[in-house]
Amino acid sequence: MTGRSDRDRDTTAMTLLADTLTWAGTAVCVLAGLRLARTPGAAGRLHAVAPVTALGAPLLLAGLALHPWSSWHDVVKIAVIGVLLAATGPATVVTAGQAVARAARPDHRRPGPPNADGRGGGPGTEGS
Description:
mainly alpha
């Protein structure tokens, strides 16, 4: 007999799984960051960081939650972070994408009431 109990083997397997998930999430985040540095344009950069919120962060959070040293307090905090990222990540990317598309249009001014000379455009567009 080697003297290792079933609990030791379970802890070792859990640590291995947690480390694998953590390193996989870290790799996704680092690769997305490297890709971000080489991607031109704001819309392309939004696509470059999408894997971080979709894949990298969940892998990292799962790995951290599964570590044997994690208490239930830690797991609850990590779960809240995961829920917030899952709920707000896609909406943030969509909103930023809409802002980039709006700014890229040639006439991105907001329509407003007519100016004093009868032309449209509202405040801030005088003389155009």
